[in-house]
Amino acid sequence: xxxxxxxxxxxxxxxxxxxxxxxxxxxxxxxxxxxxxxxxxxxxxxxxxxxxxxxxxxxxxxxxxxxxxxxxxxxxxxxxxxxxxxxxxxxxxxxxxxxxxxxxxxxxxxxxxxxxxxxxxxxxxxxxxxxxxxxxxxxxxxxxxxxxxxxxxxxxxxxxxxxxxxxxxxxxxxxxxxxxxxxxxxxxxxxxxxxx
Length: 196
Fold this sequence. Notes:
The protein has a single domain (about 5-195), classed as Rossmann fold (3-Layer(aba) Sandwich). Helix 1 (about 15-30) packs across helix 8, helix 2 packs across helix 3 and helix 4 crosses helix 7 (about 150-165). About 55% of the residues lie in helices and about 15% in strands. It has eight helices and five strands, in the order βαβααβααβααβα. The protein is globular and about 45 Å long. Strands 2-3-1-4-5 form a five-stranded parallel β-sheet, with helices on both faces.
């Protein structure tokens, strides 16, 4: 059975690293695996990235509708065909990011509604790293911060993720402040349990 895994977290929490390591682990087990991310590298994803970096601006509702449109294409073109072919899929960010980040400015029910038709992952892993630590990592690692990369904003997003973790099944919290290898081991243990 192919698994659909979402790695979630605040900006700077290490999702990209853990996505890469988990893909490598699947491959080492002789399993086929696709690692992907949202926003995608497609046309709509490009519009989103341009807004995140400040190249253009729209209201929060328009941005969330772009995220949903990008996700619809992502599922149709990449995620679902891979899963149907028996390939595991790991996505670095998915619909819970849209809801957690979007809820800072927008209505929770509306955000859930525009994402209601999308497949829920078999397992969602939230890398729990304090907003202060994430913000520090971002400041050290980037010359310019993106739209949502403010400490006060990240605190609210973190609270939203914690709330979502209580609402949805197969939504696990992993301590993202441990070493990269420890975080990876904890993720593998969760995935193994689900595979059994």
